[in-house]
Amino acid sequence: MADRGLVLDAIKTHLVDRPSIQEGDKKVLRGLKPPWIQVRPVWQLTVVPFRVFYDVDEDAREVVINAVRRKPSRKTTKEIL
C-alpha cells in the first residue's frame, strides 16, 4: 500500500502542471515500442523502484497513465514493458 501512495504522490507532483516537459525524473522514450497501441510519444516518470509510462494529449489537456512497472536495477526499460 505504501508503494501505491509513493507512485500516486509522484504523479500528482510531476504530471499535473507540466507533464510534457523533460526535467528531473521525466523523459520521453524515443524509439520504444510499448505493448499497447500508441500514437503519441511514450513518457516515463521515474519513481524508484517504479517506472510510470504515460502519454500526453496536449489538445485535451490530458495525461494517460498506460502502465506502472517495478524496475529492478538489472533490467532495462524495454525488458520491464
Please write the CATH class name: Alpha Beta
What is the domain tally? Answer: 1
Distance, first to last CA: 22 Å
Report the total helices: 2
Order of strands side by side in the largest beta sheet?
1-2-3-4
Give the biggest sheet.
4 strands, antiparallel
Share of helical residues:
10-25%
- Proportion in β-strands: 25-35%
Mean pLDDT: 93
Class computed from helices, strands and strand pairing: alpha+beta
Under CATH, the topology is which?
A: YaeB-like fold
Globally, the shape reads globular
What CATH architecture would you give?
Answer: 2-Layer Sandwich
Q: What does the radius of gyration come to?
A: 12 Å
Q: How many extended strands? A: 4
Q: What series of H and E elements makes up the topology?
A: HEEEEH
Low-confidence stretches: none
Describe this structure as you would to a colleague:
It is a single chain. The chain has 81 residues and is α+β, with helices and mostly antiparallel strands. It has one domain: YaeB-like fold. The protein is 22% helix and 33% strand. It has two helices and four strands, in the order H-E-E-E-E-H. The chain has helices at residues 2-15, 77-80; strands at residues 26-29, 42-47, 50-57, 62-70. It has a four-stranded antiparallel β-sheet with strand order 1-2-3-4, with helices on one face. Strand 3 and strand 4 (62-70) form a beta hairpin. The longest helix has 14 residues, at 2-15. The radius of gyration is 12 Å and the shape is globular. The two termini are 22 Å apart. The mean pLDDT is 93.
